[in-house]
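Researcher: First entry.
Model:
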Amino acid sequence: MDVDSPRSDGTLRVLVVEDHADSRELLVDFLEMQGYAVDVALHGLEALARLRAGPRPDVVLLDLMMPRLTGWELMEHVRDEPVLACQQLAVVVVSGAGPSRPLPQGIRAALPKPLDLDALVATLGALQLAPPQA
């Protein structure tokens, strides 16, 4: 399968990048119930490896404050690596970190923690990333 092609069944791919197990499990369970195919990364370094290896997700839900490689640092890598930069990833920040500095370039939306799941659905819909209707 081409790393940039959609899944053959039309399911949208979401990469959840979250270091807190409870938040990660909630997101994964909810997104799968909504019809998304979900992959996870426990920190930015793991997310970077997954993005490099493919397949490219349709959207990345990204926490900013994580060990090993923060969301800020991950977005710098995405911006600076030509193979990743050309993918034009749809990145949605999901973070409890206040706006201490401007969001990284390439962020399509930002949602605060604790996460409002209705707001997440609305955001994905606004980005035209709603799963196909059954």
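Researcher: Second entry.
Model:
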Amino acid sequence: MLELHKLVKRVVLPPTMMLVGAYQEVMGNNHNLFGVPHELIFIGEDGYHYQK
């Protein structure tokens, strides 16, 4: 899980910064540029777990 710093003042961040990792995972798989992703994140009612 990505931990973020505490906000000192109100700062507007572009939402695209949060989507960079997901984009790399998807594009790496489709374009075969970075290979196939080797991890999975399962999300359910009891929370989530990470599997390599």
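Model: Note on the second entry: The first strand starts at residue 40 and ends at 44.
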